[in-house]
Amino acid sequence: MNAEVLQSALAEYFAPWVQALGLRVASFDEGSVTLRLPQSDSLSRIGGMLCGQAMMAAADTAMVLALINQFGEFRPCTTVQMNTSFLKPLSKQDALVQARIVRAGKSLAFGEIDIRGADDGKSACRATTTYALL
């Protein structure tokens, strides 16, 4: 796997509005993928706070890329469950969205996502996910 394959998956498998988030592959390793979500006025609420909808979309997207990384290719999948906790506002900085595979079986995959400030490193959002592998 390489960063170019993961980055190109964003254009190939995701809707235009997801692509409009401007996500970039920041890093990856055997069990995780980290995306950078750039700070944007179009994704922010009053005071420059990143909106929860953008964080949830970025988290879901990062986990699909983590699955591509895990399997070495895209496998059709769908989100079955996503539990999200917003810990603190994320304001006026890019977000780092790290998706980690907890377990990937034959029909289900489980993951955890941490969204933190790119500048301060503080966790702003945590999510757990379950995906059906089709």
UniProtKB/TrEMBL annotation:
Residues 52-122 form the Thioesterase domain. InterPro entries: ACOT13, HotDog_dom_sf, PAAI_dom, Thioestr_dom. Keywords: Hydrolase. GO terms for molecular function: fatty acyl-CoA hydrolase activity. It holds the Pfam family 4HBT. NCBIfam families: unchar_dom_1 (TIGR00369). PANTHER family: ACYL-COENZYME A THIOESTERASE 13, THIOESTERASE SUPERFAMILY MEMBER-RELATED. Belongs to the thioesterase PaaI family. This is PaaI family thioesterase. It comes from Caenimonas sedimenti.
